[in-house]
Structures are given as structure tokens and as C-alpha cells.
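Tutorial handout. Part one gives the primary structure; part two gives the three-dimensional structure as C-alpha cells.
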Amino acid sequence: HAQGVVDGKSVSGVGFLERKNHVGYNDTAGLLKNVGRVVRKVLGEMYPLQGTQEYVNKMCLGRHCTGKGVPPNVICDTLFKPVRSLIDRGGKAWRSLILISAISALSDGHHDSSKYLAISELLHVGSLIIDDIQDESTIRRGGKCVHIEYGVPTAINAGTGCYFMAPILAGLEEMRPEKGFKLYNLYFDVMRAGHAGQGLDIKGLNYLMPDVIETGNTQPLYDALQAIHVYKTGGAAGTLCAMACVICEVSDEVQSAFGNFGTQIGLAFQIVDDALNLKGFEGDLKEVGEDIRDGKITYPVIKAMSRLNKFDRTYIWSILQEHTEDTGKISSVIAKLNSVRAIDDCLAEARELVETAWTRLEPLVVDSLPKIMMRTFCNYLTERTI
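Part two.
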């Protein structure tokens, strides 16, 4: 029995619900797992382990193809297989969920957006492969990093190759010139910003800490960290939303609000990640206090530094510089952060960022299931424990 309101009048009656192409899930985490399965299927076809000569010639070699001397299996083994080794392990896939939901919410009818997953996923996976080399990491998504398994030269080539394969696989060159030009501009704009952000991340923020210790003024440090995460994470999510707007040909007002929404979602995701690292992840997916052990300057640390006295600021900074494995020291730092509610207030800040961005966007998008999915993901993002 269904009840509701139509044209201001209460109505009731027998209702029927038809569900097509239904894939069951009970919560947002389950939805993301389903999105992840779709992502792996689509990218498996785009990055085949055994591609045909025709496919390799068209997608990789292009107009420079000589038509001889390049067996397709060699390209697949050196360009596709290393990337697939990471893709097939799965991932959070939230970027793809935001992209597909945005396109669906802005479309009048059904819109097959699967090819655009090349942009949301390959841009991310390529950056992970390169990041792991630069950070000298050994483990990614529960397995060996690509450069450990396939060697640094192959990993660099395959990782950077993702950046250039993504627009082709997404079919941007097949669009009307004006639309394609806008999408290419957005894509390479975020590529430049991402590399700038990575450069800033490699440089680090240690050079700002002496003044923070002395004065307790953390604003320059906060601004610098936020810039890094906007350029590396928030900007990518914002660009995906902006690209959805170009694809669906919406107004500049909607594009601006959607782009801001994506950027704030990405920024909030990073803030929550920093906080959970110190609170603990459900299922122990990450070691509690791993960021302290690694000496990272994160949002909770910055927030605490603005509230603690000079003695405590000096102590925390000394522990971060040690890169200690001592759980007692790590716990002592977490305790000081908790004493000034730095961790919980970071989570509150993330919620405020998302809510403010959603409040601006919500009236500009018609009500629909994709819109509900985006709203639900907002809640999941700021309340998640994994």
C-alpha cells in the first residue's frame, strides 16, 4: 500500500515496483563494491591481456603504426598487464560512482557512460603507480606495487601511459569538436594541477613547521596542505563532475556548482582518511597511527598544533620526525590530538564541507535516483569507517 502527496493532495492506493537490471546491495559500501565490479569489467575490455592487432594499432599506435614488427601480445604485456595487475585487485571506485551518478542525474534519459570510466579510473591508477615509485612503496591494494612486480622502467611507462590512453578510450576525439575541446581542456588542466600537487607533496611541509612550533599559527600550513589535496584529489573529482556537465551540456551555473561539489567531496575524503588513520579503520585495513609513524603532517596534526601549547607542539613534532615504530609514543601523540578534539573536529569539518557544497548544488539538479545516490554517498563519505 502506497501513500503520498500529488499536487498538494494526499493520495493512497496499491502500488507496484518493477526493478530492472537489479544488482542487490544493502548499503553504500555494497554499492561501491558493485561499482568496482563494473569498473573492473569495463577496464578489462579496454586494457585486454590478449588484444588483437587491430585493437592495438587503433588504440595505442595510431597514425604512426607501421603495420609490422609489433606483436599485440608485446604491447599487452608491457602496457596493459602491469596496469591490470592493480586494477584487478579492486579499489574504492568512488570517483567513478560520482562521475556516473553526475552524468545520469543530468541526463534526460538513460546514458551509457561506461566508456568514461577510462578517465576516472586510469587517471587515478596511473598516478598510484607513479606515486608508489616516488614514495618507494612496496605494497598497494594488498599486493606488490607494480614497480616491484614488473620493474621501475616498465611501471613508469605503463603508469604514464594511462594518462594518454584515458581520453582515447573515453572516445573524446569522436565528439563534436567544441565539446571535445572543452573536455580535453578540463582533462589536461587537472593533469597539470595534479603534477604540481605531487611536486608540492614531494617537497613536503616540514619547512613550515618551525614557525608553527614557535607561534602556534597554523594557517599557512593548513593552506599549504589543503592546496596539495585540492590539486591531487579534490581537483580530480571536481574535474570529473565538470566533465559530466560538458557531456550533458548544462548551464555554467550548474557546472560551477557541480565542479565545486566534486572538489569538496575529494577534499573531505582526504580529511576523513587522515582522521580515520588515527581513530582506526573498521576491519583493521590500515594500521592505527600509520601517518604518525611515517612522520606525515595531516589535518588532525595541524588542527591540534593551533590549540596546544608550545611544549606539546614541540613534543608532537619531535615524535613525527623520529618515524617511530614505538606504539607508546604513537599513542601519546594521538592522546594529545584527542585532548583538543582535533580528530573529531576534522570529521566535523569534512561534514561541513560536503553539506555546504550539496546545499549549493541540490536545487540545481532535478530529483532522481542518481541524485539520491550522490546524496547517500555524501553521507557515507563523512560517516564511513573504512
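Part three, for discussion. Confidence is low (pLDDT under 50) at residues 281-286. The CA atoms of residues 295 and 320 lie 4 Å apart.
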